[in-house]
Amino acid sequence: MPAKALTDADLLVLGLLAEMPRHGYELEQVIDDRGMREWTEIGFSSIYFVLNKLERQKLVKAGKTSGAKARKRYSLTEPGTKAVKAQSLKALGEFRAVRSSVLLGMIHWPLLDQPVALHALGMRGKAIDDERARLEKLHLSGQPLPDHVDALFEYSLGQLSAEAKWVAATIACMERRPELG
Q1: Rounded CA gap, 16 and 10, in Å?
Q2: DSSP class of residue 108?
């Protein structure tokens, strides 16, 4: 295990390299094809940054491919394999609080014009409903999926459902009890 904990982007790249050696462009394609940006943020340029960092940490090694377009093809080292397994187990077993910007908006509720703030919460609710519909459609279009991928969708959809319920309850509460605002 490396001295420092892996970032989510590190873990994603290591996991994809655990499947098979790949070069940066292949990693980008797999991330796009599998819709992995639904669960983690990693840009195309970040892939190469992460690969270079992981190579310096000796978690991956690079080899050149042959052909007209010689590219570095990265594969896991033994420490890289151990790191991805350990960090995956840690990610499964630990809770990491997610801090949403909605909490900052709510803490400043007394500063806001209540009708405008209620409208903003309503817009958040609509955005959540739209995202939930988009994910449900994406989930259904990919069927049949492996159980672990279904679980990823169910997790995201469950979080969206919980937040939609919270938004609706908060709007109802703030409309009934304006003195809280």
Answers
A1: 10
A2: T
Q: What is the pTM of this model?
A: 0.79
Architecture of domain 8-93: Orthogonal Bundle (1.10)
The tally of CA atoms less than 13 A away on the side-chain side of residue 135 is 23
Beta bridge pairs of residue 72: 64
CATH of 101-180, one of 1.20.1280, 1.10.10, 1.25.40, 3.30.310: 1.20.1280
Rounded CA-CA distance 4/165 in Å is 38
Q: What percent of the chain has pLDDT over 70?
A: 93
So what's the pLDDT on residue 67? 65
| Cα angle for residues 161, 165, 167 (degrees, 5° grid) | 115
Q: Tens digits of per-residue pLDDT, 48-71?
A: 999 999 999 999 999 876 666 667
Q: Which amino acid is at 67?
A: G
Alpha-carbon span 118 to 174, nearest angstrom:
8
Instruction: State how far the Cα of 181 lies from the Cα of 113, in Å rounded to an integer.
Output: 9
CA separation for the pair 166, 174 (Å, rounded)? 12
